[in-house]
Structure of Acyl-CoA dehydrogenase family protein:
Amino acid sequence: MTTAAWDILEIDALLTPEERDIRDAVRALLDKKVRPHVAGWFEQAALPARELARDFGELGLLGMRLHGHGCAGMSAVAYGLACLELEAADSGIRSLVSVQGSLAMEAIHAYGSDEQKDRWLPGMARGELIGCFGLTEPDHGSDPASMATRAVADGDGWLLRGVKMWITNAPVADIAVIWARVPDAGVRGFLVPLDTPGVTVREITQKLSLRASLTGEIVLDDVHLPADAILPGATGLRAPLSCLTEARYGIAWGALGAARDCLETALAYATTREQFGKPLAGFQLTQAKLADMALELQKGLLLALHLGRTADAGRLTPPMVSLAKLNSTREAIQIARTCRTILGANGVSGEYPIMRHANNLESVLTYEGTSEIHQLVIGQTLTGIPAFS
């Protein structure tokens, strides 16, 4: 991507040549495999997830920050730029990659045994196997400490019972990382092949957001697992929350990709669409909107880049990620809504990507931690007082 008119700060110049090459390679793949089709996928509420996973695996996008087991081992900034480009195509596309790499593969890589890593990670890195992450429940979203799913020792293994809801990739996944409460041991993670007897996956339909993404409910009805299904290194809520921090980092970049695509669309439209004898871009109110949006987008990109450099230096903290995720999602959805006004009635047409991005960002604003939750994380960091309960 060359420096665009809205990139007044020339943020592109702050990237290394390798980072720009990675970003450009991701964008080229999306231009070929996703952009020509994604409006149709959104309209049809469908996604060729397995085909795309193999394409993404071939480029090294799955488990991009992980080392070994066929993973690319790239930098945090490179991963952030990939997320930016993925979500510039569609939030559902970035979600496919984020859930696979930052949640499912991250959990196995960080907390799994050598045998579990050897069994699952190479195929997941290639996109031959798809994973999902079962934390959210029908009655427990922002409060995972109250999860109702239970795992109990059962002879030579484990017995799981519970329901997980709003699970991205579940309808096509081969393996799920399921988080359950174990008596006297707290929250633990389990690897559950989704063809195991007692597991039922139901695709969630009638979504008005993230329609180019496959979302499901996972019902665990006395599912018997072998003893080695447990993730040995995952003890307590800190384990799944650490995976969420990784996913939120990607969202901090990704949401800005959706915002960028909206702004580029609005700029192109405003400079060619004429009203009252001149282009829309010639009116003061339109220029004010464009200026404010460019300002917020560039501020967000600088914050995301700083976050990535901090991560690569090993200093990233959850409050930093909360601050960036809160800013990126809040500003991105406002940019999408403002761009829609510039296009007028055309802004709601599927011919343009803006309303699709705006609808998607309604979900991005609330998943992996709602804006309110991230405000409270920042508030606790400032005051030292937890306000979650």
